[in-house]
Write a structure and sequence with these properties.
Helix Hairpins; membrane
Length: 765
């Protein structure tokens, strides 16, 4: 088998595997598609059955209310509803006749068959309801049993699903149908109860069970359904009718609970218990009757306390209860009297005659409490609960629409799988064929490259032989030249070593000189810096001296102004003293009346004299201060002149030191430059000496390499001969690969692989 055939087989095996997987997936999805189509058909059957169930639930409620009211309620509503039910029944039977029962199951066919048998008896039942000859229990059992068969058939249809999510939705749908059915039965039961005004037989227990079952099924639905369906249910249940229905249901529970307590009260108080024991005690006076009487009294008081604490009692209930309890207490108050009379051995007739208790109001009140009627209009109840059940029907239709939508989505997904599987199959075939062609093309290219490589190897062998001969000849000449170069390089090495030693000595001298000049440079720089600082200090002294001169001028001006002020004060003092003298004269003329004024005038004269003395003292101080100021001003002017001379000389010193620093710096730069050149010469000499040594070693290595080349040339000749043999083997291998790939031998032409002549593959020494 050729290599091409093997490659085709290698690609075909996984292709067949992928194709098989794709076909299997398509068949599996096709089966699933059939199941989905079956679910959609059964969903239509469920919708038709649900519509019939909904109308039968209404008819059941109306029939129950009609019987409970003894034919006075729902007289017109019941026949209309029966006509609607007949229409749905006719549509259901027509659909079932056309329905392909192979799409369902044996269980579905059996349940619908049983339901149809029961439905055939519906007219007889209706006649019994109309004539009120059928008991309500039998009517409820017929409708509930028939609806139950249909509901079980609906549950069986929605449970036929291959998808887990759809199965969960179907289960929640079935639970919701059961909850809706319980609501329908509750409608029927309370329609009968509200029409009669009381629970009879086991209706209350049945009612209580139905309410519990309704809530339980709704909880199951809530736990299994998705968020969108739960929110839809909450939205529908926010209708006021739902609240009103719940109120009436709670009213039924409360009234029944009160009725039980009232019945207990009537039983304990009646002639078979309390009254009976009371009469026995009055007539016989035995202790056992008294004890039993006391037990009855305690029990009645306890029941009365429970009833009084019950918030659901209305005003009429409380009035009747208080009548009964007051009569009870009247009897209780007579027990000690009866006991005392029996201890006195009073005749029974006298004891009985002495007790006067009118219990007729209590009996009447008990009758009113026990014989109760629900104050709920059965028509109002039926209308409100029907509104709620209609809302539940909308939720039911929404759930079924969701199941059908889910089936449609799954069908769309199956179509997508069909498409993807087909694309995968086609893509796999295309990739397989394309890759097979690419592999064959690569192999053919490889053969061509191998042929070309064989020619290249043969040509390279010839070139190696020629190069080996040339290398051997050149190696001998190179060895002689290397010996001469080695001698010359040894002489150059000795000279380089001498130059390096002299350069090192010169470099050391220049280094010491540079250090001395650097120290001089640093000293001149420090002197220049100090001169600059002195110059700055002189400038600051000049500025301070100028400020002092300004201040002295200001002081002098101030002294002159104070002198003028003191002169004015002296003049004022003189005038004041004259005024005081005049005042004293006038006071003397006034006699006794002017004595006080004379004292004041004398004090003013003294004050003026003191002020004059103070002014004179201030004048002397100011004059002394002015004299000192003039002396300070002269000294300040002299200090200013000295500072100007210092500033001028310090500036000159700074210029000289700066010039000296610049020249010293230039001298340092020249010495450093010369030192660098000497170091360069020294380094170059050392490098020259090192280079000569390295060249010498390199020459020795080259001599060794030259000797080695001669030996290698001989080995290369032998390798060229071996390479020629390898090229012949490569030629044979290419021919074999061509045979495996193409199915026939591909012969190499003689010019495709040149054989190197043997004489060119040997080297001559």
């Amino acid at each position: 088998m050729t290599l091409k055939a093997k490659l085709i087989l290698m690609v075909a095996v996984p292709l067949l595997g992928v194709a098989g997987f794709s076909i299997n997936e398509i068949l599996s999805q096709n089966k699933l598609s059939g199941e989905i189509d079956r679910v959609r058909v059964l969903a239509r059957l469920s919708q038709r059955s649900s519509s019939l169930i909904h109308e039968m639930q209404k008819e059941r409620g109306l029939s129950s209310g009609f019987l409970g009211s003894k034919g006075t309620k729902f007289v017109e509503d019941l026949p209309r509803q029966q006509e609607v039910t007949n229409l749905q029944l006719q549509q259901f039977r027509s659909f079932w006749q056309e329905f392909d029962q192979k799409q369902g199951s044996l269980e579905i066919s059996k349940l619908i068959g049983e339901a149809n048998e029961r439905l055939s008896e519906i007219e007889n039942l209706r006649e019994g309801v109309k004539s009120q000859s059928k008991p309500v229990g039998e009517v409820l059992e017929y409708y509930s049993g028939t609806i139950g068969k249909l509901l079980n058939a609906v549950e069986a249809t929605v449970m036929i699903t291959p998808d887990p999510d759809m199965a969960r939705l179907s289960t929640s749908y079935a639970a919701f149908l059961q909850a809706k059915e319980r609501a329908g039965i509750i409608r029927a039961v309370l329609s009968n109860v509200f029409a009669k005004g009381e629970f009879t037989g086991q209706l209350f227990n049945r009612f209580s069970e139905l309410v519990t079952q309704h809530k339980t099924y709704l909880q199951v639905f809530t736990s299994l359904s998705d968020q969108e369906n739960r929110e839809y249910l909450i939205e529908k249940m926010s209708d006021p009718s739902v609240t009103e229905v719940e109120r009436m249901i709670q009213l039924a529970f409360k009234e029944e609970a009160k009725g039980k307590l009232f019945n207990r009260l009537a039983f304990e108080f009646g002639y078979s218990n309390f009254i009976h024991n009371y009469k026995n005690y009055v007539l016989r006076g035995q202790r056992k009757y008294k004890e039993q009487l006391e037990l009855n009294l305690a029990s009645l008081r306890k029941i009365g306390a429970e009833l009084e604490a019950n918030p659901d009692l209305d005003q009429g209930d409380l009035r009747n209860l208080r009548v009964v309890l007051s009569t009870l207490e009247a009897y209780g108050a007579q027990i000690p009297f009866v006991s005392s009379q029996w201890s006195k051995q009073t005749p029974v007739t006298k004891i009985d005659a002495s007790i006067e208790i009118d219990d007729a109001p209590a009996r009447k009140a008990l009758e009113a409490l026990v014989i109760r009627r629900f104050e709920v209009d059965p028509t109002h109840w039926f209308n409100e609960i029907t509104k709620k059940i209609n809302l539940l029907k909308e939720v039911e239709d929404h759930l079924m629409a969701g199941i059908i939508k889910k089936a449609d989505q799954m069908q769309s997904g199956i179509l997508l799988v069909y498409l993807l599987a087909g694309l995968v199959l086609v893509a796999t075939l295309f990739v397989g064929v394309s890759q097979g062609r690419n592999i064959v093309a690569l192999l053919e290219k490889l053969i061509t490259d191998l042929r070309h490589s064989a020619n290249e190897v043969a040509s390279a062998a010839d070139e190696i032989a020629r190069s080996s001969n040339a290398l051997s000849s050149g190696a001998t000449q190179q060895a002689a030249s290397l010996e001469e170069s080695s001698a010359s390089m040894e002489e150059m090495a000795r000279q380089a070593e001498g130059n390096a030693l002299a350069a090192e000595q010169t470099s050391e001298s220049m280094t010491r000189l540079a250090q001395v000049v650097k120290k001089s440079l640093e000293s001149s720089q420090n002197a220049s810096l100090l001169a600059g600082k002195a110059n700055n200090s002189a400038k600051k002294g000049m500025e301070a001296m100028e400020n002092i001169l300004g201040a002295m001028d200001q002081v002098k001006k101030g002294s002159d102004e104070i002198t003028e002020i003191v002169a004015v004060i002296s003049e004022i003092t003189h005038q004041t003293k004259m005024l005081a003298t005049n005042a004293a004269i006038e006071a003397a003329r006034a006699g006794e009346h002017g004595k006080g004024f004379a004292v004041v005038a004398d004090e003013v004269a003294k004050l003026a004299e003191n002020s004059k003395a103070s002014a004179k003292l201030i004048t002397n101080l100011i004059k002394s201060n002015a004299k000192n100021t003039e002396t300070g001003d002269e000294l300040a002017h002299k200090g200013e002149e000295v500072l100007r001379e210092i500033l001028q000389h310090s500036g000159q010193v700074t210029e000289i030191m700066n010039e000296l620093s610049i020249k010293t710096s230039q001298q340092v730069d020249g010495i450093l430059l010369m030192n660098e050149q000497v170091e360069t010469i020294c380094s170059a000499s050392k490098e020259q000496s090192l280079g000569v040594s390295q060249i010498n070693r390199a020459l020795e290595e080259m001599d060794k390499v030259t000797q080695s080349n001669a030996a290698t040339s001989q080995e290369a000749a032998a390798a060229a001969e071996e390479l020629n043999a390898q090229a012949q083997m490569l030629k044979d291998l290419v021919a074999e690969v061509s045979t495996q790939v193409g199915g026939k031998a591909a012969q190499l032409s003689s010019h495709e692989l040149q054989v190197v002549p043997r004489e060119h593959r040997r080297l001559r020494e």
